[in-house]
Amino acid sequence: MTLIIALKCRNGIVVASDGQATALSSGGPVRQKIQKIFQLGSNVIFGASGSVGTMQKCRDLIKGYCEELSKGLTLKVREEIRQNLFKIMKTEADRHKAFHGDTKGAPLADILIVIYEPDGRYRIWHVAPDCSDELLDELGYACSGIGDTFAYTLLKNYYSSDMEIEKGKLVAYRVIKDAIDVGAYGLGEPIDIWTMKVTNGNIEITQLSDSEIMALSDAYMAWKEAEKAVLKGLNLESTRSS
CB burial class (10 A; 0-12, 13-18, 19+) of residue 133? Predict the structure, then answer.
């Protein structure tokens, strides 16, 4: 299982995920660490939740379109990618049904793709397991995977379209960390965070280092303590009497 989020900030994009996968073995499900976010080409970040094998097939497909995507997410390219992703999903669903008798539990994938277009726009493209799709950059954020409802609730409170990437990284860390700590099945550390921004005309895609993640962890703890202090200092009696 997976939780992936993408946040559009004033000066770029932040993409984050948990780092746990659940693999099947003859003895039952086994936890393992896995990378779920990847840079594809010069202007594309790919992330997906769902079956690891299907995620890999979808990632390889998108990678084959990097040259076209470097020119932007045109309607033609968007539709062609969507149709080819549908072929992957349908093949997995049909195979699962042939073996198990129905499509419930078929190894599908829910995909988030972040793209920087030559006209200066950051796009957040979501492709669902049934290959319906939507552009979410106007909303400003997107979530994929188990715990997405929880993540959307947090982002509604903490997200702002005018936040800088530095603050966006901390918000992304908190959303993933809180989702893990709440105990959503299949989520676990390490937390993985990437950024995309343009500096002097150059696209910079960066995966945060372990030391940067640790610094975010410290900031996250300070944020939580500050919230506790604010709550402790609230005078509810005076509010009730007024």
Answer: middle
Written as one string, the DSSP assignment of 78-108 is HHHHHHHHHHHHHHHHHHHHHHHSSSTT---
219 has pLDDT over 80 = yes
pLDDT at residue number 9: 96
The CA distance from 10 to 194, in Å, is 16
Residue 58 DSSP symbol: H
pTM passes above 0.70: yes
Is the pLDDT score of 71 beyond 70?
yes
Cα dist from 13 to 25, 76, 116, 163, 175, whole Å: 37, 24, 9, 11, 15
- Inter-residue long-range contacts of 135-142, CB under 8 Å, 24+ positions, other chains counted: 135/73, 136/6, 137/8, 140/7, 140/8, 141/5, 141/6, 141/7, 141/8, 142/5, 142/6, 142/112
Q: What does the pLDDT read at residue 100?
A: 93
**To 10 degrees, the CA torsion angle through 156, 157, 163, 165?**
-80
Supply the DSSP symbol for 209: P
Exposure letters 207-219 (e unless 16+ CB within 10 A, then b): bbeeeebeebeeb
